[in-house]
Amino acid sequence: MWTIFATSMKRKLKNPTIIVNYILLPLLLIVILGNALSSVFDKDDEGGAAVPASLSQMKTVVVNDDKGKLGADIVAFLTSEDNKALFDVTVETDAKKAEQMIEDGDAEQYIYIPSDLTSGFESKKESNVTVYGEDSNIDKVNITGLMLSTFGDGYLAMDVSSAGNQKELYTHVYSNLLTTNGSKDGSTDGKDDSSNITALSYYGVTMLVLILVYGLANTMNFVQEEYSEALGDRYLVSPLSRTSLILGQLLTGCAISIVQGIIIVLCAQWFFDVSYGDNMLVVFFIIVAGSIFFNALGLILGVIARRVKAIDSVVTLLIPVMTFIGGGFIKIDLGGLKNMSINELYQQPLFDYIQQGVINLAPVYSSLVAALGFILISVYSLTRKGVR
Amino acid sequence: MRTVFAGEAIQFSYNKKKPVLKGLSLSIGDKQIYGLLGPNGAGKSTLTKVMLGLDKPQGGKLQWFNEHMNASTNRRVGYVPQDLALLYDLSAYENVMFFGKLYDLKGERLKKQVRFALEFVGLWDERNQKPKKFSGGMKRRLNIACGIVHNPDVIILDEPTVGVDPQSRNRILDAILELNQIGTTVVYISHYMEEVEKICSHVGIIDNGQLLCQGTLNDIIQQHTDQAILKLELQRKSTAYAKQLEQYNVLSTDGNMVEIGIPKNDVGAITVIKDAFGEEVKSFQYISPNLEQVFFKLTKKNLRD
């Protein structure tokens, strides 16, 4: 296994195009995409370089159609003394007028409380508060969404504790937390750079995942090249066990992916001030797990389809498509379609951790189990002689 | 003689409708140079893969060194595939070193074996060059070096001289003979009849998934040929001698050339025929029974068909 690993690494390192393809390209993507699209994230970010967003008091218009207690409580919450530093609230009764305020720039966000909020809550039916805002104010909108979610969680907790363990029906009004503030203490003065999310931070995550996904293609191509022709026959007739052969190849791919991932993270942090959260061990674990998963997937594809050259083109096409669907290139929310992107398996836990401090590694653990299956099938497929 | 490989009633097919090996039996003795001949599609490559364990036979028995194939027997067998199996990013030395390591060679022994293999194929001076800079013949020789670095008891060479210049071909053939002289059993798969005749002590002819014959080169020729050939070049076109030729076993005619079959080992027949045509004979050539005749007789095909 170590012979295969060491020799494969040597071969890769001797190839100068590897440096360009594996390392420089993703870094370049972060810079290009991050800078080119930074205005989408923060309108104050001018002059090319991304500047951390600074949150001042948010001009907010609220339309409360709910005549019940919950609607009133939300308005009271938004206009409370505690939140005055954050929200400059105007209460409106006409939704169209509120929308016009957004269009005219008189308000940065518009919170709509539906008429059935309280009744829905009491009758255990779903009802959502909606926050509207321009893309340029997405940071502020996200923070408001997060605060309202927290408020809703508190309400739900009280309800559950008073009514017993009933089924949870309340759902967060906001799910897309890709660019929300990761501040733990709720400060909004922008002094803590790590608490502010920039376009580069967003691409810091999506490009990190993209480079891990590329491990799939790299390992698949490598295995295809090694095993489809005479070279593979030469490996297979040697006394080396199939498991050693497989693990040697996998280890090579993983090592490269891990190095790539670390380089991306370090360069993004050092040169572009990208935030990857407080505990780098979590990010490192996700990089290692992602490397194993994507390379194992590449391994099984390479072994099973080692004589099917067309699969290379399919995978090469699918990777950018998956990345696009997962919002990797352009920050886009395609709803449920996003879940079809394999990148999401690793993007979401990274965003959860970096921006909310939430460590939700369930998808990562599931992918590791899948990786183990891929490896076992690959070994079996190679061991089963005569497979063509 | 000790048997290094024994295959009995080997059956193999990629799909059930078209079997590739139909109960083929084959035996290779120690220190032989065993030439495996067969026309395209005869099943040579499949047999090679089955022998190496790359394809699993559906029937029959297969043993290396009187054992079922295992890691230990694998260590004793070397394989030089027809297609070049080299790592083009690495130097010739690193290539051979890598394949040596796959066979558990380490330290000084590995270095010694790498040197032996590269010197053996005449590439020691070019050891630091990458194979992509090599000529076709040099690549072939490096391919062989990678297959013999672990000093196998048996080496299987699949068409090792395809696409190489005559000089490299001779060098490869000499190397194979030398390898055999130091005790290595050689299984030589080739399209080139003259190569097999030149270096092989034993021959097996395979066609249509079956072994048609096997044995020493001389035995096979003796058993499967009954005539030699007398090739005459006449003064006029052969049609001019039609009546005279009727009494002979004419194998072919082409312009002034006539090939007549004569009983093998009957040297007297040469004189009789030559005298019968007298001054009409411009030149003549005696072609003793050979492998090509055996091959044609058994397969009804030319080897390059």
Automatic annotation (TrEMBL), chain A:
Lipid bilayer topology: Multi-pass membrane protein
Domain of life: Bacteria
Keywords attached to this entry: Cell membrane, Membrane, Transmembrane, Transmembrane helix
TM helices/strands, residue ranges: 200-223, 244-271, 283-305, 317-337, 357-382
Record keyword Transmembrane present: yes
Pfam families, per the entry: ABC2_membrane_3
Subcellular location: Cell membrane
Domain ABC-2 type transporter transmembrane positions: 19-330
Protein name: ABC transporter permease
TrEMBL record, chain B:
Record-linked SUPFAM superfamilies: P-loop containing nucleoside triphosphate hydrolases
PROSITE patterns: ABC_TRANSPORTER_1 (PS00211), ABC_TRANSPORTER_2 (PS50893)
UniProt xrefs under Gene3D superfamilies: P-loop containing nucleotide triphosphate hydrolases
Domain of life: Bacteria
Keywords (A to Z) from UniProt: ATP-binding, Nucleotide-binding
Signal sequence annotation: none
Stretches assigned to the ABC transporter domain: 5-233
Molecular function via GO: ATP binding
Protein name: ABC transporter ATP-binding protein
